[in-house]
Amino acid sequence: MYYNGIYHQFYQYNPNGSLWGNIVWGHSVSTDLINWIRLEPAIERTTPSDINGCWTGSATILKDNRPAIIYTGADTEKRQVQNIVFPKNVSDPYLREWIKPDSNPLIQPVGQGLNSGQFRDPTTGWIGPDGLWRIAVGAELNGCSAALLYKSEDFVHWTRVDHPLYSSNASTMWECPDFFAVLPGNNSGLDLSAAIPNGAKHVLKMSLDNCDKYMVGVYDIKSDTFIPDTILDDRRLWSRIDYGNYYASKSFFDSKRGRRIIWGWTNETDSSSDDVAKGWAGIHAIPRTIWLDRNSKQLLQWPVEEIESLRREEVSHQGLELKLGDLFEIKGIDTLQANVEIDFELTSIESVDPFDPSWLLDIEKHCREADASIHGGVGPFGLLVLASDNMDEHTSVHFRIYKSQEKYMVLMCSDLRKSSLRPELYTPAYGGFFEIDLKKEKTISLRTLIDHSAVESFGGGGRVCIMARVYPVTLINSSTRMYAFNNGTSTVKVPQLKAWSMNRAQVNVRKG
């Protein structure tokens, strides 16, 4: 949340080690979303209603400008219940201490068809036209996934509405639901408790299947329900926030800059023993501004502009041509901590390959089969990052263009299968598709942020985002290389390529 000039980030944290367990709420603060001071934990396991874990929840700024956090606790019976905390001293700019009132737990898993072990992760609260607060809680209801709706006058005493905000029989449980308003084609954010302008849409985001998915639709205030614009029975076809290693994301309205920011967690994909040796496990992706495209169909995301404050040495190239098999090395920057932005211009679409809609059901499988070494009509072209001198290790981030009956489809892959010579790592080939109008758009953009084990990529202006974790042996022994490449039969032009070394942010420095 953003409160009185300070960004607060709360996160699931084990103070006793880098393996899962003993979960409390870690707390860090920042004035710029980039450099962070770590404080003592905000919420610890001290009461019967959270003694077995202080799990996910959300912060809300109340009408008197006082923040409150509702979070899930695992109680003495290991039921999941919803609790609240308030800051002990709102004049403390860092809000170091939080108080648990005697009214906890506020909400218990009571009601027919409710699974007490699948009832968690309350959303940020919002106010309806009737002046009542609302939150949604992820749940399993009669064997189906649901975002249960609760109302309150005072944010403390809650009553469950007799119908969910939305439910689906396509899955059994949604974790970390998020609900927010967006204006089509406008990258400004909306405060859900303020007056929502005409023409706005609402987004319901949920975490399941090890990824974050979302629906765009309308919030019917009269019936207090979310109505998706499109309902797809096969959840494999649901839109995704990120097509890589990205989960449990949470958005908030940044009143400082009038934008909505979403933030996701990316876990380690090496071993538990590696986590113990590092002394930490799990990182957050770069915070992203998130908004809805002008067609009201797709969310777009872009790293917050503050990340550019870390840029240092810059290299720039214009007017490159990449023919079949070409590798262009990007030199003059620190390839272990880098920001690369590259535009690809297609010289011909005559040889574009046909699109098969069945690929949408398992895009990772298609990325494995059509990898960066296999020549296509238009593509693959993109970046090779964190590459060893002999290319035994490299991570490929690339595009392929396909033609369906009425439109062109762009496949974006982040292929980790050759990212490391270490055995037994999880090295998938992530992928996502987006549509493109090649008559209007002449270029396809790619932005990749690299920070040692993190490779975070944004394709087509943020239409597909892929967060990846890689652990090359090359990182330990020497520097790495970076290339732009083309393995398609059609030549690809690069009108613009820019790359920067990135400074190290000050993260979780202890002060005060």
Automatic annotation (TrEMBL):
Keyword Plastid: no
CDD domains assigned: GH32_Fruct1-like
SUPFAM superfamilies: Arabinanase/levansucrase/invertase, Concanavalin A-like lectins/glucanases
GO molecular function: hydrolase activity, acting on glycosyl bonds
Stored SMART domains: Glyco_32
Entry keyword annotation includes DNA damage: no
Domain Glycosyl hydrolase family 32 N-terminal: 1-303
Keywords: Glycoprotein, Glycosidase, Hydrolase
Record-annotated Glycosyl hydrolase family 32 C-terminal domain positions: 306-501
Gene3D superfamilies: Exo-inulinase, domain 1, Glycosyl hydrolase domain, family 43
Family statement drawn from the similarity comment of this UniProt entry: Belongs to the glycosyl hydrolase 32 family.
This protein's name: Beta-fructofuranosidase, insoluble isoenzyme 4
Naturally occurring in which organism (per UniProt): Urochloa decumbens
